Amino acid sequence: MTGAEPSLRERRRAETTTAVARAALDLALADGWDAVTVDDVAARAGISRRTFFNYFATKDEALFHNALPWRPEVLEEFQRSTGPLLDGLEALFTAQAEQEAPDRDRALQVMGLVDAAPELLPGLLARIAASEAVLAEAVRAREGVDEFTAQAIAAVAGALARVGGMSWLSGLQPDPLTSTRAAWAVLRALTTTPGSDR
Amino acid sequence: MTGAEPSLRERRRAETTTAVARAALDLALADGWDAVTVDDVAARAGISRRTFFNYFATKDEALFHNALPWRPEVLEEFQRSTGPLLDGLEALFTAQAEQEAPDRDRALQVMGLVDAAPELLPGLLARIAASEAVLAEAVRAREGVDEFTAQAIAAVAGALARVGGMSWLSGLQPDPLTSTRAAWAVLRALTTTPGSDR
């Protein structure tokens, strides 16, 4: 895993899906998701309707495509690392949080969007599950553990990310990096209490 | 916290809400949630429409009232216990799993119901959040930790419960008790790897 450069084709594909996801979110925030059509999203992203359907089956799929994406270089670094798993996971989530260039207002707007249009929830939950599955697969590959173990570890990490993220969004923590570190510190304290391992 | 007996009034109230939640679920499984009215639920539970609204504001609220309930005696035992938090939490989730008299077919039917009627998701997610908040409050009271710490611990425990539950429902584990133990064993292994604490 020395991180071969993605091909031009792969890079263009990634650029297009990112642009489409961004266009979908912008339109949803401006007009409400009900009022947005696939044609609107395609037009704003500068592609044809036909091209849109080469990338996504539905407008909901486009909206959440960029939700919770793993940065490839950050995920690769995790898989290459060889220290204790807990350290590797914390480094992974810390690097994600650092590189996010967090836009708190936008994140809050997205939350408001889903609150106002709960029919978006299944799509968002599917993205969260997909993101957790990618992490579980990375854990399984790095550690050689079984699928259940990998899923449980990914779920625990996801829970910490969620609580950390909400703490930042609610204003309790100044930025995603601080909240990520605080969440992982809780896990370490929970499990290193004297006598807590049997 | 020596567990004072609930009053007759409290017991009757709990019996009624349980009966209503059960009636709502039975009707939803039989007819589809769309077709079920508040009147149907009230009739099946043997109460008047007016009494229904003394307990619940909507039919969705009734449906999920009994989802993920903490058994009072199990929660009290957790709060009374004084050992390491991790042991206390595992004992809490183990006792819940043991006392559940698990009905796998019914649990799978409920999952199918939510799949078929995704408009139920917000209500279900609200119940999950409420259940996690109850646990966080119990952790905060037992340990004297701050709210963020308690929330992170409750979220981690909830993640383990979810992965364990899915593993049982998908047939990988024979019963909720085995899957609960397996999930907690993953957390202990994750955090007791030599060198994983800094």
From TrEMBL, chains A, B:
A single MF term (Gene Ontology): transcription cis-regulatory region binding
Record domain HTH tetR-type: where: 14-74
InterPro entries in alphabetical order: Homeodomain-like_sf, HTH-type_TetR-like_transc_reg, HTH_TetR
DNA-binding region: 37-56
SUPFAM superfamilies: Homeodomain-like
Keyword set, alphabetical order: DNA-binding, Transcription, Transcription regulation
Pfam families cross-referenced by the UniProt entry: TetR_N
Record-given protein name: AcrR family transcriptional regulator
Organism in which the protein naturally occurs: Kineococcus aurantiacus
